[in-house]
Amino acid sequence: MAVERMKAQTIWLTGLPCAGKTTLANLLFRSLLEQGVTNVEVLDGDVVRTHLSKGLGFSRADRDTNIRRIGWVCRVLTKHGVCSIVAAVSPFRAVRDDVRAMVEQVGGPGSFVEVWVRCGVEECIRRDVKGMYAKALRGEIEQFTGVSDPYEEPLKADVVVNTGTETPSESVDRILEVIHRAASSR
Ligand SMILES: Nc1ncnc2c1ncn2[C@@H]1O[C@H](COP(=O)(O)OP(=O)(O)O)[C@@H](O)[C@H]1O
Ligand SMILES: [Mg+2]
């Protein structure tokens, strides 16, 4: 397959823990690679917290710092023509809006695609991929988004995927459609 370079975009997946961000980020990455798009990097919140944001906690201030750092990396990657796929709870609207502005400042309008990975908290609790909800519900983890910390739902997401009712591949197809539309309109 011919190697293509996709115009730099940041695909920002936000949603509750266990909503499906990591699953979709990895599927999107694979799918873009299969399409021959090689200038792509995945930034997963959990991984970022072991490197770039090691030592930060889950207070509002630390969460905001974590997201701004990821946003800054996306901005740098955008400047150099690399696509970023971010999987991060990113619960606060104001900071998501700030990182959109940071990226669009270098990549232009349409370079930031906000994806709301939407799933009801009851379904997230049922999935409980890492047993974190159970701990949070027992009071063993403080400030856990969806249980004891807020999640501010996006008001102007570029795409909303409902992972409680869609299969992962249906969600990925819907995101890819928006990515390609955003890329071709720029
Ligand atoms: N449409 C969907 N998109 C993404 N994940 C889904 C979907 N439907 C079911 N799932 C399941 O939900 C779980 C989501 O886990 P994960 O991706 O680790 O969530 P997060 O990264 O948001 O915490 C996985 O077990 C995945 O298979
Ligand atoms: Mg994850």
TrEMBL record:
UniProt GO MF annotations: adenylylsulfate kinase activity
Domain APS kinase intervals: 8-162
Residues the entry annotates as binding ATP: 15-22
Keywords, in A-Z order: ATP-binding, Kinase, Nucleotide-binding, Phosphoprotein, Transferase
Domain of life: Bacteria
A Pfam family it matches: APS_kinase
Coiled coil location: none
Pathway(s) where this gene product acts: Sulfur metabolism; hydrogen sulfide biosynthesis; sulfite from sulfate: step 2/3
Catalytic function, reaction form: adenosine 5'-phosphosulfate + ATP = 3'-phosphoadenylyl sulfate + ADP + H(+)
Entries under InterPro entries matching the protein: APS, APS_kinase_dom, P-loop_NTPase, Sulf_AdTrans/APS_kinase
Active site: 90
EC number: 2.7.1.25
Enzyme class name: transferase
Physiological role: Catalyzes the synthesis of activated sulfate.
Family membership: Belongs to the APS kinase family.
Protein name: Adenylyl-sulfate kinase
